[in-house]
Structures are given as structure tokens and as C-alpha cells.
Amino acid sequence: MNKKYSISIIFALFLINIFCYYIIFNFLFLKDEVAFLNVGQGDSELIRTKAGNILIDAGPNNQILFEISKILPFYDRIIDLVIISHPNTDHFNGLFSLLEHYKIRAVMINNLDYPGSRYQNLLKQLKINNVLFLKGENGTKIKWDNNFISIISPLNSNNNVNNSSLVALLNLNQKQFLFTGDIESSVEKKIIKYFNQPIDVLKVPHHGSQTASSEEFLNTLKPKIAVIEVGENNYGQPHPDTLKRLNAVGAQIFRTDLDGTIQFIFDNNIYQIKKESL
How far is CA 115 from CA 112, 118, 121, 123, in A? Predict the structure, then answer.
């Protein structure tokens, strides 16, 4: 065998071993994380643990690819579960781009019959990609280790697409994160029965709209931290009244339009908050 060829093989095997050790090292020291992604005027949240990757919503466009690549390493191209809160484009449209670059194993959804053409095209594309469909409804729970995600709504939404949002409560390392989609105050009143102590992090409903984050809701949850996912918009979001109500309950407020992607990175049961400098 040619000596130069042999050296090339040995060097290639060495690089492969280094790469394998790199992946193993990163996995062993992987820290649980919840990230609120800066996708502009839309929602997207990534939950990353050793058990897998869960994405809640995917924003309005392919900005999701740029943001998610900041968190997931180049070799991690699997999203185990996507939860689509509801069929508004600012919450699901980025999935078209994700499907081109990531393997999505399952999607949780509850609005299969929503007539929007863009949404129905997404459902068709998910089926083409052999993505498993899971029914999202009140009482659905996903558990791993001592952690879980529990769906606590939709309840009766009166055919209002915002109020049909899947509301997900994440319990991760004994901390509670509430993901609220675009629910309004009428649904907030119905779900407060699930809470008898303050929560740690609230994804502020409907981008800080005036029609949500009611005083009763916030006084019940008493969130330590409130994250508003918002970009440039013509809706006056976040509304000044909403900000006042959040301040009144002592919540520390983060905004993706001001703070960029906001990461909660765990070390045991304590998280550190990391934000970008925009």
C-alpha cells in the first residue's frame, strides 16, 4: 500500500475519532435549556435536553433557521416534537424552512380542519415528510425523567383561533414555564384554576396585546419573569397597559425585539439567563 495513502487513511480515522469524542463530550455535558427565539413578529421557543429537542411554534419565516442554529450544534438535526400552538402564520410558517434542513419526528396540533391554504399546505408537507401527528388537547402530558409538558388548554374557544391555542406548561428541573400562544383574557380566566403558586417564566400571551395578560391572570400566576416575543408591528404590541400590569406584579420583563434570543440555561435546578446584545 502506498505510504502516502496509508498516512491519509490514518489521519482521516484520527479526525473521525476526534469528531466522535467531540459529540460524546458535548452530549455528556449538555445543559438543559429553554430559549425564546428572536424570530421577529411571531413566536418560537426551543426546549433542549438530553432527552431531545422540542420546538413550540416556528415563527413567521426562515429566520427560525438562523436562530435555532445558534443553539443546536451543526450535527444535531433532529427535532423530536414540534408543538404548533395555533394556525396563524406568525406561529407556523417557519416550519416550511425547518423541514428542508431538519428531521422532524412528530408534531402536536389541534386544528387540523382550519381552512387557511398556507396551513393546509403545511399539513400536506408534514405528511409527505412522514411526520407523526399527535392530538393536542387539554390533559395531554409528555413526561421524561422528572420533567413534563402538560397541555392545559384549549378549553371551549368559541371557534376563536387565538383562544384555541395550545397552552403548554413545562416543568423542567423544578421550574415552571408557561407557553400561552395567543390566548386572550377569556381563556386566561379559565386556566388560572391550574395554578396555586407563582410560576417562574411566562411567555406573555399574544405578543403583549392589550386583550391579554389581564390583572386577574397575572395576580394569580405572579410570574418572576415575563418574556414578550415581538418584532416590528402595526398592532401597538406590546401595549403600554400590558407592560404596566406586568410591572405591577414585579415581573422582570424581557423582549425579543430589544434583547434578542433569550436563553434560560440550567445548572442543576438553577438557570442563568443569557440574552443577545442587539
Answer: 9, 9, 10, 11
